[in-house]
From TrEMBL:
GO molecular function annotation: N-acyltransferase activity; UDP-3-O-[(3R)-3-hydroxyacyl]-glucosamine N-acyltransferase activity
Gene: lpxD
Protein source organism: Bradyrhizobium oligotrophicum S58
Pathway named in the protein's UniProt entry: Bacterial outer membrane biogenesis; LPS lipid A biosynthesis
Active-site residues (renumbered): H271
Protein name per UniProt: UDP-3-O-acylglucosamine N-acyltransferase
GO biological process assignments: lipid A biosynthetic process
Amino acid sequence: MPGIAPDTVFNQGWDMDKRRFFGRPAGLTVAQIILLTGAECHDAARLSHVITDVAPLELAGPTDLTFIESNKYAGALATTRAAACLMLQRFEGQAPSTLILLPTERPYRAFVNVHRELYPQSLRPTSPFEANDIAQGSTIHPTARLGSGITVDPGAVIGPRAEIGAGSIIAATAVIGPDVLIGRDCSIGAGCSITHTLIGERVVIHPGCRIGQDGFGYIAGARQQKVPQTGRVIIQDDVEIGAGTTIDRGGIRDTIIGEATKIDNLCQIGHNVVIGRHCVIVAQSGLSGSVTLEDFVVLGGRVAIASHVTIGRGGRVAGGSGVMNDVPPGKTWGGYPARPRMQWMRQLVTLARLTKSGDTAEAPSILSDQS
């Protein structure tokens, strides 16, 4: 809020330290962290020290675990108050004497393993209403079939003949359309709408997603003529879809999201798109109709892909790129329009040199007399 100090906003008698959204962990000993991560520790006397939380270097306290793997944060390492630190071996000489050193080849990955162990409840969304059954105020069609242990929040709507597997959560105001199938242990976020869709198991769909609506198809003319969209969306097991993402159903074939693919917030997946297994699509990316991503493709943020383009297995596209042509398997492309990485980098360097050279010359006036 402009002109208002942050302290003023929260000066309402609230105890900010006690208002936490995840329960405080029971903690892990240093010895347990070593078993979990494979890190080393040369101070046997401190193996029983209990770690109760995780924090960045500059904010960590005497019961926190932190990590470092970049020279950028070496200054913060020297002054950290953390109890223990997962680190690359080269940082050991820069650490304060009070710190329990836990050298490992992959500090951040080890840190994430500990974070997951301390906060397992953070890995899967729960009911915003903190319900654990079918709440009053939800609307479930008599022909819908619900498995055991399902949570349905107030305001949720489950349509005719929909089937939802055991242990799944349908959050407040989510709408599940007729004949939709949702597997076991899925989480459908608040305000989602899901139609014309088949969903596997352990799928997480964050709030505000729109899945299964019409694809964008028209025949051009004096009056655009709508093309029927009679396909489906198929979402395979272990997929996660970020908040506000939209996935259109297919036209005459299915839109498919492959196993364990992760899609960030605010992405657009057009009709007939086929996305392979274990792909990563970062925020604000847009895939036009009939795009194919083969397995293990990675798209940076705000990538735009033209219709009918294929990105081969293991291909990578840099953030902000516009892809107009197929990307070969295993290759990295970037730019607008996108091209092979080395060609793109050479062109950027050449352009920078030309720009620098032009700065030293006298530029002609656009108002000079050309007659």
